[in-house]
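All the exercises in this workshop are built on plain-text protein records. There is nothing in a record beyond a sequence line and a structure line. A learned vocabulary of local backbone shapes supplies the integers on the structure line. The question running through the whole workshop is how a given chain folds. Here is such a record, shown just as it appears in the course material:

***
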Amino acid sequence: MAENDEYVPDFDISRPTIARVYDAILGGKDNFAADREGAAAYMKYVPNAKDVALDNRAGLKKGVEYMARKGIDQFLDIGAGLPTMENTHQIAQAINPDAKVVYVDNDPIVLAHGRALLATNKSTTIVTADLRDPQSILDNEEVQAALDFTRPIGLMVVGLHMHFHDDEQPDEWVRVLMDACPSGSYLLITDFVDTGEPLQKAIEQAGLESLGNGWIRTPERIREHFLGLPLVDDKLEFIPRWFPGEPDREVPAVEDLEPWHKIMMGGIAYKA
């Protein structure tokens, strides 16, 4: 952890943020009135919004477990959000107690709450930075101290792309980070998908009303997030059907999924 653990940054509670709205949807306590209003907008359009958020967490868990079992012991979790159930460090360190995790989020409240929670976990670091400025993440002294960029890294951009319009070219920000990761690294992504389901459009409307962002994308467009790297099992899939490393596993048919289970897709790419 940093030497200034006692530092608690200022933050604006009058406007909703991604991390705090997500926390409110999950029933957490680290949010304010504006965030709860944002969560209510999601619930208005998608009453099962909490299940969608839980799908996202399930995608994170599956991805981290896969990478840890493949020997990844360094994780860079971008847009990590507020601590909730089964966070990246808990999942990774359950498999490898020596795994190192760096959380990055642009919401200062994540730093304030996370550092208090992780005060005794010396293998986990939280920094305030923004994916829009990827070089600042790579140049961050705490990131450099925690991660060895000469060894494979699990780069995670979970539930984040939807908050950036394609005009912002978010794939290029991720490319800067992935270019800094050596061969043997992985890229884990989950995103809102557009396969023509009405509830997918509903969650886009909810996001635009709540946060001013939250765009859905076709599976073909989401595959482009992986920067041309090959996907594990060649699969981008709805989270309940996605089990990386288990291509022959029996999974529910798409038509048997509840509508809210067809909002998030996940995938992992490997950098050879």
Q: What stands out?
A: The longest strand covers residues 186-192. The CA atoms of residues 12 and 83 lie 19 Å apart.
